[in-house]
Structures are given as C-alpha cells and as structure tokens.
Amino acid sequence: xxxxxxxxxxxxxxxxxxxxxxxxxxxxxxxxxxxxxxxxxxxxxxxxxxxxxxxxxxxxxxxxxxxxxxxxxxxxxxxxxxxxxxxxxxxxxxxxxxxxxxxxxxxxxxxxxxxxxxxxxxxxxxxxxxxxxxxxxxxxxxxxxxxxxxxxxxxxxxxxxxxxxxxxxxxxxxxxxxxxxxxxxxxxxxxxxxxxxxxxxxxxxxxxxxxxxxx
Length: 215
Known about the structure:
- By secondary structure, the protein is mostly helical.
- It contains nine helices and no strands.
- It has one domain.
- α1 (3-15) runs antiparallel to α6 and α4 (64-84) packs antiparallel against α8 (162-185).
- The longest helix has 27 residues, at 33-59.
C-alpha cells in the first residue's frame, strides 16, 4: 500500500477512541466545528513532522528486518491500547474561554499528542516508509477521524458504538502487526520469537487488566 494511504488508514484507526478524539468531541460542543478541526490540523501537522522525522532518522540506521519485526510488536501493542481506550479527566471536560478557541485547540492537541498512540504509530510507520507521505498521511488521517467523530456525534446526539469501533480497529492493528512481524522475522530463531510473544502477552495484560480499586 502507498505510504500516504497506509499512514492515513493506520492513524485514522489509531485515533478511534483515543483521548485526543474525546477532547475533540468535547471542544466541538463548546466551539465552532471548523475552528476545532483547523486547530487539530495544525497541531497534528506540527507534532507529526517530528514523529515522522524521528522514524525516518531511526529507520535509515537499523536493519530492515528488525525494524519490521519490532514495528509489528508495536502495532500489536497499539491494538491493545486501542482496545483499552482512553477517558477524560474531569478538568479536561470543561470548556475553557481564557484564550482564542483556535489556540486552545492547537495547544491542547499539541500537548496531548506528545507521547500519544498516534505519535508513536507515526514514528513506527516512518521507520520503514518515506518521510513526506507518512507525515501528510498521518495528519490527514487524524483530522478525518476526529472530524467524523465530531460530525456523527453531533448528528446522533448520542454516544457512538464505542466498543464495536475499538474492537474493529484493534483487530486491524493486530493483523498488521502479525504480518509485519512475519515479514521481518521469518528467519529469526525460536528464542527471539518466544521473547517477542512473551512481551506481547505482557503488554496485553498490562493494557487490559482492570485497575485495582482502593477501598
């Protein structure tokens, strides 16, 4: 698949149910939808230029088979992350009016994206794909994902089928991850595969375990 379209699809999926998507839905109830999407676009463009740059820099200096193998593990981890989903803290649910809505959206998304799943996904994609199409595709994919969530959410005036969306997106991440692992690690030893599988199982446990409730 072309790097642009692959990046668009993967980041579109990564953003489904993500914290920044929930922030977009919240802000869109307070401010004009166009202003919110415009802020998301520029914030994503700014963050993902660094993400794609990091991935491109790393990718050009490591063995391709190891990159694909590790990228596959990362995609599976993103699948668990997507399956778990995110939530908003109480202080993130309120509308803030101290600055212009565009700059509020821009700064909120810029900070929220640092270290987020979509940023890490972009780094992973750029480690094996060209910089420019990954940068642009990931940006467009995120804006489309947030835009559709806002529009559909406003049309339905109800919660989206969150569980079904998370499961579907997670399955796609798992399939991409398995394929990438096989493509890169088909010649690896049993020990390497065993360590990778154990790492994946541990990652799934950490993401999907129920948080303990302090009494």
